[in-house]
Amino acid sequence: MELLGAMLRRAPHGAPATLFVHPDRTVRRFAYRLAAEESLLSPDRFARTAAWDDDVVVQTLCAEAALAAVREGDGLDEVLEPLLAARNPRARSAGVTALRRAGRPERALEFLADRSALVRACARYVVRQHGSDPLSWYRQRCAQADDPALPPGAAIGLAECGERADAEALRLLLTHPAPAVRARAVAGLRTLDVTVVEDLRPLIDDPAPGVVREATLALLPSAALLPEAWLTERLTAQRPRHVRVAAERLATAAGLVVRLPVDAERGC
After folding, report:
1. Which of 99, 130, 139, 214 could serve as a FRET partner for 35 with CA atoms 20 to 30 Å apart?
2. Helix 56-69 with 25-38: angle, nearest 10 deg
3. 257 pLDDT band (50/70/90 cuts)?
4. How much is the pLDDT for 78?
């Protein structure tokens, strides 16, 4: 690595481009770390790399390098936009956190319902530092239980910073038309430790496997309270596979001896 470092430092135009896209993550990490130390790349190049590279170490390293390079200068827009639009949460969270320093904390509201828990947490931090209350935003958003455009992240976000009393708003979302919202509402109830068996039982029959998975996780601690006949009925071959698998998990947790139909066993 010392030889590679010497070669990179002597390169007339910075590190050879091939090392930045090398399939070996160790090589890419070394190349970008050196590039950050030696300021071999522009801030916007670091930001774009943080947004598209699939390695979390490179994502973090490049995001930090991009923001550090413009800490006292101009060009923050060129760095922020790629980070905020990144698919990976590491880069997005770095961009959201930097909104405070950029004097644009209001943009953090856009990320309160992000799909990533890390990004949501960073957005709440920026919003609070700006003097606003993210909990009020979540409550207002989740109160619109009939809104088909309600982002799923709003439901779990409410649970992450809310109180047990907020469970009622999440219960109303259990019948939302969007499967992702229903799933996040169940996850939110589990986060708040407010899981009423009779509220969640119907979701074991949900057509969306993701909703059934969340409902199963929430019901596992109370599996012994589920009627044996109800569980057995959901183990029949006529039920969708994800329902049969959920019923088998719950029955096992309840101490019942069950056996899935052959077609469901093959898919597990």
Report:
1. 99
2. 10
3. confident
4. 86
Rounded to whole angstroms, the Cα distance separating 250 from 32 reads 48
**pTM value?**
0.85
228 pLDDT exceeds 50? yes
- Render the chain in DSSP notation, one character per residue: -HHHHHHHHH-BTBS-HHHHT-S-HHHHHHHHHHHHHHT-S-HHHHHHHHHH-S-HHHHHHHHHHHHHHTSSSS-HHHHHHHHHT-SSHHHHHHHHHHHHHTT-GGGGGGGTT-SSHHHHHHHHHHHHHTT--HHHHHHHHHT-TT-TT--HHHHHHHHHH--GGGHHHHHHGGG-SSHHHHHHHHHHHHHTT---HHHHGGGGG-S-HHHHHHHHHHHGGGGGGS-HHHHHHTTSTTS-HHHHHHHHHHHHHTT------HHHHHH-
What are the pLDDT digits (tens) for 202-215? Answer: 999 999 999 999 99
- How many whole angstroms separate alpha carbon 239 and alpha carbon 191? 29
Q: Which two tokens stand for residue 77?
A: 């827009």
